[in-house]
Amino acid sequence: xxxxxxxxxxxxxxxxxxxxxxxxxxxxxxxxxxxxxxxxxxxxxxxxxxxxxxxxxxxxxxxxxxxxxxxxxxxxxxxxxxxxxxxxxxxxxxxxxxxxxxxxxxxxxxxxxxxxxxxxxxxxxxxxxxxxxxxxxxxxxxxxxxxxxxxxxxxxxxxxxxxxxxxxxxxxxxxxxxxxxxxxxxxxxxxxxxxxxxxxxxxxxxxxxxxxxxxxxx
Length: 218
Ligand code: BG6
Ligand code: MG
Prior knowledge:
Blueprint: E1 5-8, H1 18-31, H2 38-42, H3 49-59, H4 66-84, H5 96-105, E2 110-113, H6 119-125, E3 134-136, H7 149-157, E4 165-169, H8 172-180, E5 184-188, E6 199-201, H9 209-217
Helix pairs in contact: 1-4
Bound molecules: 6-O-phosphono-beta-D-glucopyranose and magnesium ion.
6-O-phosphono-beta-D-glucopyranose is lined by residues 10-12, 21, 44-49, 52, 77, 114-118, 138.
Family: Belongs to the HAD-like hydrolase superfamily. CbbY/CbbZ/Gph/YieH family.
GO molecular function, one term: beta-phosphoglucomutase activity
Organism: Winogradskyella marina
């Protein structure tokens, strides 16, 4: 059996944490008298924590000191972690376990490639940590997506060449990162947003076992 490297983004691919990021960013925005909408939250998908706060401040036309910036980043994360603490397996997105189990049965290396610094905590909460042979997250990289660094490290850790890797991603920046790394990109979400991916599916329920097998054999 051929071996391919399967690299999964976390937020928006394995679990829907965008709603928790939204609640935490909204609380922060409110404290600064900034109106923060769900549409704006959409634009923060795949965007690093620092860059997210910079964007919110720019939308609200606010400038703040570095000290306050650092404090707000810490506060936001604490608030976010309070939601994460309540997560369990029921929050795994539909058919993700089926695909992970199939890959395991087919002996394929599986890696996580996430921008989040909370990735390990979240995987533990939803009981999926042991499904991954390598976990690369926001703590392991110096350049955020769309830079391909996170996926290149993820490929290296499972000893698979980048061109033999397949990336599942829900963000525009993440699909670009996978393409730049010369990996096969699979967008999870809408074709209107992720049209630059090699394949796009609304969610994992649309990804058949045969499709996964065809990726392995090609
Ligand atoms: C990405 C999310 O996966 O991780 C972003 O899509 C988030 O919304 C980024 O800002 C960083 O996450 P964290 O957990 O380190 O704040
Ligand atoms: Mg994501």
